[in-house]
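Marked as duplicate of an earlier ticket. Keeping the data here for the record.
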Amino acid sequence: MNPVVTAPPAVGASLLDDFSLEMTGKDVPKLEEAHAAIPRGTRINVTFLGNEDLGMRLAAARSVKRLGFVPVPHISARRLPSRRDLEEFLAGLACDGTADNVFVVGGDPARPEGPFEDALAVIRTGLLQHHGVRHVGISGYPEGHPAIAEHSLWSALSDKSAVLGAQRIAGDVITQFGFDADAVLRWVEAVRARGVGLPIRIGVPGPAGVRRLVTYATRFGVGTSASIARKYGFSLTNLMGTAGPDRFLHALAQGYDPARHGELKVHFYTFGGLRATSEWIARFRRGDRED
């Protein structure tokens, strides 16, 4: 049984226009399978995982471009063994014509594997613009981060936004996914109150099994109380079901006020389900209903 997918026109027009997707370097065959269901020119982020090497990351970005999409390769600061590794990656992207857009994140390792403590350290090197990067994505955490204090998250967001502005590089914020649209919108208001005017892409899980959603949420410190789960559309007592983000997107659209929240778009975490997510988005934007 597929989740209900009904969408008012306002959702598709304002929030789902120019949505973006996320994949790993190993998901290229899945992208090949799903590409017909994805609008040409869609931004597709390619993660920077520890079990993938330089060649795999570069090849994935090339595949995204070849299939008619905009590659957004990730750079994980704490996974970079050296400045030379960063330069080699950026030079490879520039050579392939895939360096225009990148997403820079601190990364998962508790201790840096090289000289970069966080994303800001990478941005401050000046190497991004040197290799032709024109747009930089940075991370946002509406529900906080399990390993980073809240005041540090706010400082990092403000500092990264300021440095990008000083370097005259365009950018946006991509948030960690969550299940509570009201909490996300409150966070966006707080971002704007701190003077950060970058466009924000709200992280949303693509349709997935409830067990998988809960597993990822636990890993990333995302709230999954029983009340939030019900609000999103699944039950913590039935982990065998599947949930899509239709209720979340409806709530987001209903609460979205451009005057208060600025420019918002949607970024889908596909968890390997590129085709399922892309087909779900197409149905949702058409306003189809499947019970």
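See parent ticket for discussion. The first helix runs from residue 9 to 15.
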